[in-house]
Please model this.
Amino acid sequence: MNVARTLRSVAELEKAGLMPRGSAEADVARVGERYAVAVTPAVAALIDNENPSDPIARQFIPATAELTTLPEERADPIGDLAHSPVEGIVHRYPDRVLLKAVHVCPIYCRFCFRREMVGPSGLGTLTPEELDAAIGYIAAHPDIWEVILTGGDPLVLSARRLRELMQRLGAIAHVKVVRFHTRVPVVEPERIDADMVEALQASGKTTYVALHANHPRELTAQARLACAQLVNAGIAMISQTVLLKGVNDDADVLAELMRAFVEIRIRPYYLHHPDLAPGTSHFRLGLAEGRALVEGLRGRISGLCQPTYILDIPGGYGKVPVLSSAVQETDDGCFRIRDFRGGEHLYPPSSESEPFAPAQ
Model:
């Protein structure tokens, strides 16, 4: 479907013919009222209207299933707020922080784990005073080796603002690596131009771009060209993929996606188990299903193509590799998870489980 501009409401999606036939109009409208909606022209062009199970549409087109919230789901599923000493900073691990300069995206995934925080009615963009405080926090903590810009999608910022941000981070001697988490090269590839590429670099810093893509069809010729511009400029690229029911929960699809990453010089990095965000249960596989699927990739595809399958422990306790000894299945089909601090947790968690409480 060819559209000239980003579609930002259920009504616009319907007018463009992108809503599935037979969808309950009033219920889907409620989804659009609760969670942000945006579909870029690049993604609209990929959607197969004749396929009711189209994996691209499933990621971006609102569905009534999003109105179902399970007891274990939570507004802040990975516990960002428990680790936020100042607005815009998440300091969960000793040597790195998240810097969430913006809470808007060029497109909104229906499974987003920050869906309660992002979008036009979300937390917005940091004010100049908030950004000063966030940069000040990074400068005041010499243990911070890496800054990860996320949000929201940081590449919605103009090249000018990104350049200013990189200059400020460039002035902090102990920060050595700056990483950008983005979907832009896939969903709005025209934004990646020489000015943007130059803006992402600063003297004395190593820049990484982590590309979020979940299906091989997302890696169009335009997306590959955008990635090539980044890599050719010396920016290292890694991948992030979410394991999603009905999108990529298939060994052949995952193998094709991981091979495609390697072919365009992107190192497969994380394969995320979907988080417990509200209204996303229709995307989640069981942890045992995910383990079996990922274990089936071993030996089937090159070691270059193997991502690390990880679970972000609900409540703010950090990531854990699902295939490691830190994840043990119990007799009742649940999992006992050991976090990097040595604490133990059950997954799926009960609705009464406590979020991370930072030491006072």
About this structure: The chain is about 25% helix and 15% strand. The first strand starts at residue 89 and ends at 93. Residues 251-263 form the longest helix (13 residues). Residues 178 and 194 are 19 Å apart (CA to CA).
